[in-house]
Each structure stands twice: as C-alpha cells, then as structure tokens.
Amino acid sequence: MKPSVVLYKSLPDDLRKRLDEHFTVTEIDGLTPENMAKYADAFNSAEGLLGSGGKVDGEFLAKTPRLKAASTVSVGYDNFDVDALNQRGVLLMHTPTVLTETVADTMMALVLASARRVVEVAERVKAGEWTESIGPAWFGIDVHHKKLGILGMGRIGLALAQRAHLGFGMPILYNARKHHEEAESRFDARYCDLDTLLKESDFLCISLPLTRETHHLIGAEQLAKMKPSAVLVNAGRGAVIDEQALIAALQKGTLHAAGLDVFETEPLPADSPLLTLPNVVALPHIGSATHETRYGMARDAVDNLIAALNGNVEKNCVNPQLLK
Ligand SMILES: NC(=O)C1=CN([C@@H]2O[C@H](COP(=O)(O)OP(=O)(O)OC[C@H]3O[C@@H](n4cnc5c(N)ncnc54)[C@H](OP(=O)(O)O)[C@@H]3O)[C@@H](O)[C@H]2O)C=CC1
Ligand SMILES: O=CC(=O)O
C-alpha cells in the first residue's frame, strides 16, 4: 500500500502526477483549523506532508501521529517547531539552492527601486504628472560604488554580494555568525560586527532566517545607528525587524527609504502605514516568485518527500541527525 500524504499547496500537473505515483494523496487548500477538522482522518493517517505556510508545532503533531516527513516548498522553515519534530523523529525537508539566484535578483531590484524611486516615479508618470522636464523633486540616489551591508551571508547573501560587487562596483560589508571565506575571497567582503554594519552601510540588506536570535534583531536602537541617508532592504523574514520602529524611522526621516519583500503580518494589512509612505517599496513576498523558480521549488519538494519516505535522503534535510 502506498503511504498517505496530505498536500496543502497545488502543484503543476506533472508534479502532482509524480506524487500520485508514489503516494495516496489528499489535497487540501491550506493548514487551516477548518481543514484540520474536516480532514482529520487524512491527517491521522498521513505519513507525509507537502506544502508551504501554516504552523506545524506540537499541537499539529498530536493530530498527525503517523507523520514521518514534512516537505516545505520554501527554504525558510520558521513556521515549523523543529524541536517538536525532532522529538517525534519527523524529518523536515526544504528547498534551498534552487531559489537562491532569483531571491538575490529580487533583493537587487529592491535596492535599485528604493534608491531610484522607480515605483513612485513610474506611478507619477501614469498619473499624468510628467508635464515638463523633471527636476530634483524626482531625483533618486546612486547605487553604484556605495557600501552594501549584508546581514546574513548565506546562500542568498553570497549571490547578492556577487551582483552588487561585480555588477555595481559596491564594497561589501557583512555580518553573520561566522566568517565566510568565499565572500571574502571572491567579492572582497569585509566581516564586521552588527554595530559597524549598521553605521557604515549605505544599503543594508537582510537575508536572515527568522529564529529566536533574529526576532526583532533590528529595532529602534539599531535603526538609530544607521545613516539617515541609508536604505534598508529586507527579504529574510518580516519579524527580523521591529516594524513599528521601522515605520517611525521612515516617518521621522532618520532612515532614507526601505525596500521590503517580507512583513511581520502577511498579507500586509490594508491599514499599514508602510503603504502610505512614498519612501517604501513594498512587495508581496515575491522573492522566489518566477515561473521557473517556483516550478523548481515544487519539483524539489516532491523529490524531497519521495526521498524522505523511501529512506534515501541525500540533501535538503533540516534535521539530518534523525537519519543516523
Ligand atoms: N523573500 C523571500 O521570498 C525569501 C526569503 N527567504 C529567507 O531568506 C533566508 C535565508 O536563506 P538562505 O540564504 O538560503 O539561508 P542560509 O542558511 O544559507 O543563510 C542564512 C544566513 O543567516 C545567518 N544567520 C543566521 N542566524 C544569524 C544570527 N543570529 N546572526 C547573524 N547571522 C545569522 C547565517 O549565518 P552563518 O553563515 O554564520 O551560519 C547565514 O549566513 C531564509 O531562511 C528565508 O527566511 C528565502 C527565500 C525567499
Ligand atoms: O520565503 C520564502 C522561502 O522560500 O523561505
């Protein structure tokens, strides 16, 4: 008998077919409380899970007693309680690497859009405001050769450093928990502590995971250390920044602009002040959202679940210690 799996994100037809070849699949439209109740039997018998979003914690695991592996269509896994998964011996699979270059492109787009006011100015053109030769009120700030600070020099941070340093001639500063030899040798990146990163960066780009340590790592005190001319870009997770403190800094003008792909609450609530600030570029969490990359992520997530439930995991496992 094929193992049972709950699928909570729709897949391209060919990938769904591949999943069906290996598993008995129950497809639902998200890990909502309503679906947990409605499909209680499917969760009760599920050995595998595949999807993205939704909280998977101890309470969830109590409803999935046979679960052996969860496969998330994302690299970030802050919505999973990894300690609880470990206690139960449930493998967690994710999709690093396949999305790295695309997310770095998005970050560079946020750097450029925020500095050159691309969205704001394009909207003014559409509104019919371009009626004469433009003056300083429409100008932006330069990107090339400015100092780019990267907070989180992992896969995405490294790909961003490549673009910024080789493409835009930007000196790179970075902070992470450890030094990154490749960033230093290929892109001349300079390791520094967080305070130095905040004080020296013209553009501060965050590509951190959300963890207990990174939650609100950037608050009022840290924002106050940044140059008033600096631009903050966040494509890690919204809660790495204290959003209220960020709004205050942008409103006071102690921070020049922000380019944000992630927010503390997603979708961004309609009454968020971030939506009314002209110096904010707000994107709907599109870091990896290209047809090619989203397909690649879904394909990897399917392969990851097949490997995990067949006992032949070689990569993309968050808790590989369970394999021993
Ligand atoms: N906006 C979007 O659509 C997307 C967002 N993301 C987000 O980007 C994150 C990063 O992805 P990726 O680059 O692949 O992940 P990696 O694991 O490769 O990189 C994470 C980096 O963060 C650093 N880090 C972790 N904790 C701390 C800390 N407390 N202080 C300083 N540095 C820290 C790590 O440091 P060290 O190297 O020293 O261990 C590492 O350099 C994901 O977890 C996800 O949240 C990812 C994809 C798309
Ligand atoms: O935010 C997206 C991810 O893959 O993580």
Low confidence ranges: none
CATH class of the largest domain: Alpha Beta
CATH superfamily of the largest domain: NAD(P)-binding Rossmann-like Domain
| Assembly state (oligomeric) | single chain
Enumerate how many helices there are, as a single number: 13
SS content category: alpha/beta
CATH topology tier name of the largest domain: Rossmann fold
Total domain modules? 2
Order of helices and strands: EHEHHEHEHEHHEHEHEHEHEHEEH
User: What compounds are bound to the protein?
Assistant: NADPH dihydro-nicotinamide-adenine-dinucleotide phosphate, ligand LL5AMS7Z
Profile the largest sheet.
7 strands, parallel
Across the major sheet, the strand order is 8-7-6-9-10-11-12
Helix content: 25-40%
Cα separation of the termini:
26 Å
Computed over alpha carbons, the radius of gyration is 22 Å
Overall pLDDT confidence: 98
Judging from the principal axes of the Cα atoms, what is the shape? globular
Number of strands: 12
Task: Provide the CATH architecture of the largest domain.
Answer: 3-Layer(aba) Sandwich
Strand % is: 5-15%
InterPro entries: D-isomer_2-hydroxyacid_DH (IPR050223), D-isomer_2_OHA_DH_cat_dom (IPR006139), D-isomer_DH_CS (IPR029753), D-isomer_DH_NAD-bd (IPR006140), Glyo/OHPyrv_Rdtase_B (IPR023756), NAD(P)-bd_dom_sf (IPR036291)
Keywords: Cytoplasm, NAD, NADP, Oxidoreductase, Pyruvate
GO molecular function, one term: hydroxypyruvate reductase (NADPH) activity
Family: Belongs to the D-isomer specific 2-hydroxyacid dehydrogenase family. GhrB subfamily.
